[in-house]
Amino acid sequence: MKKLSMVDKGFLLAESREMPMHVGGVSLFTLPDGVDEQAFLHDLAHTIRDTDTLLPPFGDRLRLGRAGLMGNAQWEPDPALDMEYHVRHSALPKPGRYRELFTLVSRLHGTLLERSRPLWEMHLIEGLQNRQFAVYTKTHHAAVDGARSVHISRSMLSPDPNYELEDSPLSLESWRRYKDALQIGQPGLPTEEELRNVADRLKSTFDSSTNLLRALRGFTQAWTGRGGDLVLPHLRVPGSVLNSRVDGARRFVAQSWPFARIHALGKAFGGTFNDAVLGMCAGALRTYLSNHAELPDKGLKAMVPVSLRQKGDVDSGNAVAAISADLSTHIADPAERMRAVMASVQAGKAFYQGMSPKEVELVSMLMQSPSALLMPLGLIPRLPPYNVAISNVPGIRETMYWNGARMDGSYPLSIVTDGMAMNITLVTYGENVDFGIIACRRSLPQVQRIIDYMEDALCELEMAAGFEAGNTSPAGKPKATKRVKAASKKAKTGAKT
Amino acid sequence: MKKLSMVDKGFLLAESREMPMHVGGVSLFTLPDGVDEQAFLHDLAHTIRDTDTLLPPFGDRLRLGRAGLMGNAQWEPDPALDMEYHVRHSALPKPGRYRELFTLVSRLHGTLLERSRPLWEMHLIEGLQNRQFAVYTKTHHAAVDGARSVHISRSMLSPDPNYELEDSPLSLESWRRYKDALQIGQPGLPTEEELRNVADRLKSTFDSSTNLLRALRGFTQAWTGRGGDLVLPHLRVPGSVLNSRVDGARRFVAQSWPFARIHALGKAFGGTFNDAVLGMCAGALRTYLSNHAELPDKGLKAMVPVSLRQKGDVDSGNAVAAISADLSTHIADPAERMRAVMASVQAGKAFYQGMSPKEVELVSMLMQSPSALLMPLGLIPRLPPYNVAISNVPGIRETMYWNGARMDGSYPLSIVTDGMAMNITLVTYGENVDFGIIACRRSLPQVQRIIDYMEDALCELEMAAGFEAGNTSPAGKPKATKRVKAASKKAKTGAKT
């Protein structure tokens, strides 16, 4: 029986009806030609359910001692595992647009997983238009972390449209096949020297008097389940509308944009794909907050991952660092706002100069952790605060298939907590970037409009860069011009508030 | 702002992820001829959502002070009432049988209501076969008790197939119209003399040393929200499989039988409709427990409502008393079992002899209350224990319509708690009796089969009474004979265990 790490337990302890601590994803597929939807989905459900060798933790439930989560907690096989409970059929009411899908997924993401069973659910959703179907999965963060969850999703897919599932995609057989092909190693702990470097850096930058080295050692051990201890504090709740208390109801929206279009925009400003994503989000958040008369005087801060690789630098590999970027949402002019965002990203990167990839990883993990898990480090009041998380999950560039069904998009659903009422996560897939936005339905009313505001912001920036708006899109959306007009009107309105 | 009574607070305090304290119902309707399902359901949802004068408590949310539920708790208007959140569209996956409906309703009934919003949801469910649709409602027991909930459901319906909804069925206007037609009075408290009589009776019967009079006074006042106090104990958890700990997942099944068929069976045994219902349930529970090798040596006890009215007696009106009936599930012979059930019902009725209707009502309420709410009376270990509740909700004998859609059946979903893993509730409607059975999915696996076992038990009893099985049914089910054969085989098997 596997012991839970203190970080795993932290996610369970921090959970409430208002703050479920599961992560999810919704993927869109197109049925193979000629197959019947009902038969295909029933066969798929049957294949998924039909295994005696489930990959951990899919067959395991929590086993707590007398002290509950404060004591010894382990994963144990569920003696009455009920695969019908975990793998479910659902359907959309007519007319079966994405709107109906988002409504259903918002509801499903807003309910707690059942603690006496393995902490996951998978929903096969029928009733979409154009021969599409959707799959929504939800897994507790205590059971599967983000990286493993990405690997598990991928292990189900194949680049071969004719590949038929042999075993349940949740079986050990399927996982071993994937792992052999990929050769994933065990993640290593940072060395003592790396811990020391990070402690020194954090101490001098954030002026902390804590014994950071000892705290970091405990933290990394706890994270990987090798002992250590974490204590949970009350969560801090800052003042802006994005940082209010949340209730348990969620609103989810998703949208894809062509990678090339966003990348070209970044390049036109002398920046990166990532800079352009931040520009889009900054513009959209400005419009949303202006429309609700909630735009702060100062720019919103976003916790974002940035690549540290520079031209000719091979040592730092693909190190991705978490930085707090200033979205400069108080600036009305799109180009000026974009340049301010880029400058703040540059400043954020400077902090990491001279760190090893392992050190970068550790610091980034600290900065992105729910504040509840960071308390033992004594850094909470000193780490850079932020209003919203914009996370980038590395994706697949090939078109993938699941039992012959083409995957058309894959949209992440992350966690919303008190003080963080919105989460934007994006994943690159094929030629697109798929955005998934989850928010508290009460604190952020009509947040589904953010998707339209992102398109508006993108068009605005393209105009500012001298592009014909939307023209870099391979799809060449015809409505782009109309949208830009609407966007310019809004920008003027926004400037007045 | 209305204050919550201590009993209302009790339901909130006793609630957990594993034991949601909401009650629900699912009703089946047939679309009016010629209308389009999608348009009809969208119009219906629009009408329900469209009101500025919502009937309390549908627009009210909980407001707690610093002491939480242990302190002052009130209902206050939700400042950001979101009717789209409460009134929802859902759909069934194909082929849209009752099986798919029960699966969806089981899931919906197994999730907690959101405490920061008014404590109810209504789901309009499309995708059923034969031009039917379903409506599932769920309401917290703290917000609406059983009787009010029945009235609210009825206030939406009309015996006139051509009656079109004028206002939202959840509006004050609609409620006033219904109340005027019905003339519902405020329920009165029992008099001091009635309290004294009940206290004396309970004291002598259950040998209690508590000051019952004072406790009862407090209890009835708390129940009606006029003060008083209740303390919640840990719940007792007896040993049988029906009385184990529950988790949060539910299984729901429902079925209708012709009232005349069950009534005729009761009469053939010299008993009542209610006796025949108990006979059906006793046989079904025996089969279910035998099949799972869990049949106890002694008969299961059921808490059931019985009518006390005797021929020529008009004073006691429609007094319905709760008694603990011995289901005699250890007896293999159907007729012998039926006679034992009837004898225990007679013995149970004797307890109420000479009580006024108000006294009967008070004692019955006590006996049916969740044990958590009874602790202050000091009677818990003394009140008759029971394994399962079989509740009878008084229904409507006329065929009813909702905005022109004919109601085909209406099935209750009650509460399942630790120690009470199954609840059987029935309601008479039109020419039928509609049974709704809700159970813990883990403690009672495959409990959906109980519906088949009830039909089997009914056929067995009909054979024992010398009927041609199923022949009293107006529908004249053709499969009845086949079922009886299966049932007899099972009865033999059952006798061996």
TrEMBL record, chains A, B:
Positions with biased composition (Basic residues): 479-497
Positions of the UniProt region annotated as Disordered: 470-497
Entry GO MF terms: diacylglycerol O-acyltransferase activity
Gene Ontology CC, one term: plasma membrane
Pathway: Glycerolipid metabolism; triacylglycerol biosynthesis; Lipid metabolism
Domain O-acyltransferase WSD1 C-terminal: 317-461
EC number: 2.3.1.20
Stretches assigned to the O-acyltransferase WSD1-like N-terminal domain: 4-277
Signal peptide: none
Pfam family, one: WS_DGAT_cat
Keywords: Acyltransferase, Glycerol metabolism, Lipid biosynthesis, Lipid metabolism, Transferase
The organism's place on the tree of life at top rank: Bacteria
InterPro entries in UniProt: Acyl_transf_WS/DGAT, O-acyltransferase_WSD1-like, O-acyltransferase_WSD1_C, O-acyltransferase_WSD1_N
Catalytic activity: an acyl-CoA + a 1,2-diacyl-sn-glycerol = a triacyl-sn-glycerol + CoA
One GO biological process term: biological process involved in interaction with host
Entry keyword annotation includes Signal: no
Protein family membership: Belongs to the long-chain O-acyltransferase family.
Protein name from the UniProt record: diacylglycerol O-acyltransferase
